[in-house]
Input
Amino acid sequence: MTIEELNVVIRASTHDLRKQITDVKRQLSGMEKDAGSAQSAMTNAFGGIKKALISAGIAVGIQQITSGLASLTKEAMSVDAQMQNLGRTMGASKAAFADWAKTTAASFGISETAAIKYGNAYSNLISGFISDTEASTAYTKQLIEASAVIASRTGRTVEDVNERIRSGLLGSTEAIEDLGINVNVALLETTDAFKQLANGRTWEKLTFQEQQQVRLFAILEQSAKKFGSTLATGGASSLLMFNAQLENLKLELGRAFLPIAQTVLPILTAFVQELAEGIKWVSAFFTSLRGESQETSSILQSAAVSTGTVSD
Output
């Protein structure tokens, strides 16, 4: 047998073996390619993760900024909402009250925000027994001013005094008596307001609206007689007025930022939402490394895509 014939026999005998070897090479080449792709994906993913973490730091800063904006603008929005309610209780007199709250209330140590807040509380009560909106508005301002005067002369906060006066208007005697103002029936029957409204009738014969008017006038009368109509001189009154001006500054800042917040916040909200979505996939990838989630390769691809998107 010649060399050529032997070579043909060997080739024929090893044909299947060589075919299998070729298949193995092909598989190894594919595995190498897959490994290279996986390595590239991991590199890109971790590059994206780095960018995402930097973005997360930016998001924290954004959250701090938006929190400050929200705090400033929340009060401005609240004041606007309460002003709309004043239109219901004060009618055409709302504009005059708003001007008083903005320009005069601070001289009594009452910020514009507080004046509108108390104005809503008192006007809601007074409008229930006095239908004239102009008169109702005037009495509301008098009550707010009286509360500031009483606070300056008793050392109490304006908030505390207002709550006690409000409870007195509702017929409760204990809280308002701590201010030295009495609204029990025996005393109310001695007031000028009762004598004019009752016209010879007893307390029980008065309508609910008349009884409420007597309470209101009695509170204003006793406040003027016992505490006067001006703030007490001294540090306490100066502090009240200073704090009122600080609150007014805060309100004006809120009003200034309100248009900006209304425009910017939706955009920032969308950005943070996208960031959160990307970080979710990064978190899922690390979880998958501990064998607690779906296939790592699937998570890895999702993480790579998500972190890239978030980085952009």
Remarks:
- Residues 257 and 263 are 10 Å apart (CA to CA).
